[in-house]
Design goal:
By secondary structure, this protein is mostly beta strands. It has a single domain (2-24, 36-178), classed as Porin, CATH 2.40.160.20. The protein is 11% helix and 69% strand. It contains one helix and eight strands, in the order αββββββββ. The protein has an eight-stranded antiparallel beta barrel with strand order 1-2-3-4-5-6-7-8. β3 and β4 form a beta hairpin. The N and C termini lie far apart (38 Å). Mean pLDDT is 83; it is low at 21-28.
Amino acid sequence: MSLHKNLTKLLLVFVMGAVSTPVLALEGGDPGFYIGFGANRLTVDDSDIDDSDTTFSGRIGYMFNSVIGVEGRFIDLGEFEEDNAKLDVDGIAASLVLSVPIGFVDLYGKLGVIRVEGELELDTPFGSISEDGDGAEAFASLGVEFDTGTLNIFGEYSRIDNELDIDIDVITAGLKFEL
């Protein structure tokens, strides 16, 4: 839980710096839509489950200027197996994006909500049991983007908070296309 608190503090410092930096004039920047695709390495760490999976994600967003934007994202949160149980989880997220452009590099942070949907299958001696569930969770991300023009390369770390106190970390590498 202390990593979550440290991530929140780091994101607050990041936000305060982005908002207070006079070089980042709100009327300038590169406004517009973008789409992106990424490969993810998702890790779940809990006393019952300690597993990882390689997944994919897609995103679409709009930058109002070089500092502030919004983003929607679909992310496959993985498939995990433990003994006789199988869990398949997906998420749809909405977030506020705050960016600090430094030359051809953009440092950014995101705060948002992710709607998580999962399906649990249990194999028992009496047959298979299937259960669906969903819920909304908070998440935060920190990333770096290399601005090469229309096609950009990004790397991002995300932490998904949840009521079960399970550590869910996602590392993403991908491409972003500015439209």
